[in-house]
Amino acid sequence: MAAYLSMGEAHRRIADYLSRVADSISSSDGAALASLLAVSFAQSSAPLSDALSAFPDFPRLAADRYPHLSDLLTPLLRAIHSHSLRRFADAYSSFEKAANAFLQEFRNWETPWAMEAMHTVALEIRLLAEKADRELATSGKNPDKLQAAGSFLMKVFGALAVKGPKRIGALYVTCQLFKIYFRLGTVHLCRSVIRSIETARNFEFEDFPVKDKVTYMYYTGRLEVFNENFLVADQKLTYALTHCNPQYESNLRRILKFLIPVKLSIGVLPRITLLERYNLLEYADVVTSLKRGDLRLLRQALERHEDQFLKSGVYLVLEKLELQVYQRLVKKIHIIQRQKEPAKAHQIKLEVVVKALKWLEIDMDVDEVECIMACLIYKNLIKGYFAHKSKVLVLSKQDPFPKLNGKPV
Amino acid sequence: MDLLEDDDEFEEFEIDQGMHRFVSVPLFCSFVADDPEWDDKEEGNEAVQQWEDDWDDDDVNDDFSLQLRKELESNSSKN
């Protein structure tokens, strides 16, 4: 609870804050400005919030003292005030006004000295919009602030993704946009920013800050998973994994959550120690099912973790592992047969596969199994041909079960 | 669409690593800008080494394979 605050003291605190903002701008101190714009770090600005409550005439104070900055300062104070009262939709609207005024100023500054402050604004507007939307949704109103924050950030992106020294800050804003688009389920909007980042002639991707590159590769890697471009997804997510700050375990885990299904789909398995280390044991049975050729186990694992896999969008990727599991099962049947009767090992009766599946409690007749085997041959998971009449799969004597070797099925 | 949570949202990296020109300690935040651990070494995180691509061997002595063998042999005796 705020202690009693005299008008004089409240006035002094607000004036102090305003002068620090104005000073940081006139002295081009980007770091100081950034921290002053971080309105949602409430604990830090509590003395200021109390002062704003005690001195309701604060908008005039800003306008009188700093008329040239009042478009920025007045809504900024309102945003801090509303935020401290937990009126987030109001706080968002005020902050958006301040953000627009700030962007206006930022465009006119030739050097990127205020980049950190611009990034703080980009982060803050997203976080505030999320809080505002939560509040609006709870009171039955249309939660449209996050979308509005996305529009604002597109303007920021436009101001940064140009030739010149400000471009280095564009990737950070791109990542904020990704977070918004993924949250809103409008990932198709990522495309135009990606094109702008990846087709730049005058700026090497490698020159962006590491943390932004890692975040960018995580999100674009996920997009490639959705598009089933597993090779590109592998590249991007592996880049993110390699360069991610090891202290951010939760981010490593997020990367792995998508990289594991991608790797599985190209025939590379994670070690169980990796799954244990990052608490991704929902993949353990999937891995075992591939090793064994245990179709039943794969289906059980998918069923058990269905909600989770669907939510992350990897369910379909995992479902497609069935073909690899079939391949493994047929290979095991072949090896077992070879040990018993080497001369006939390359002939697999479809009936035998039916029996094996029945043992795994999967009911399939010979025709269905033939269909699956045809698919395996077509996908180059099995080399061989059918003797249709005798219902026998005849395996090639050379490399009958080609490995994926890092290629997608 | 649940706006309240998104487990898969990437956590913000607080430290402006790789952007030394702008690095500084924000007045109001308690984290430190100095992060010697994250030196972005070429070989990357240990997790990068934790994969196997030679798992698809000819070994059929695991429990699953032994049971499969038993099953297939009982079949062939029936036929």
TrEMBL record, chain A:
Source organism of this protein record: Oryza meyeriana var. granulata
Domain PCI: 214-400
PROSITE patterns: PCI
Listed GO CC annotations: transcription export complex 2
Name used for this protein in its record: PCI domain-containing protein
Transmembrane regions: none
Gene3D superfamilies in the record: Winged helix-like DNA-binding domain superfamily/Winged helix DNA-binding domain (1.10.10.10)
GO BP of this protein: poly(A)+ mRNA export from nucleus; post-transcriptional tethering of RNA polymerase II gene DNA at nuclear periphery; transcription elongation by RNA polymerase II
GO molecular function: double-stranded DNA binding; RNA binding
UniProtKB/TrEMBL annotation, chain B:
Its job: Component of the 26S proteasome, a multiprotein complex involved in the ATP-dependent degradation of ubiquitinated proteins.
Organism whose genome encodes this protein: Oryza meyeriana var. granulata
Protein name, as recorded: 26S proteasome complex subunit SEM1
Protein's cellular compartments: Nucleus
Ranges for region Disordered: 36-59
CC per GO annotation: nucleus; proteasome regulatory particle, lid subcomplex
Pfam family name, one: DSS1_SEM1
InterPro entries: DSS1_SEM1
Keywords: Nucleus, Proteasome
Family designation: Belongs to the DSS1/SEM1 family.
Protein's GO biological process: double-strand break repair via homologous recombination; mRNA export from nucleus; proteasome assembly
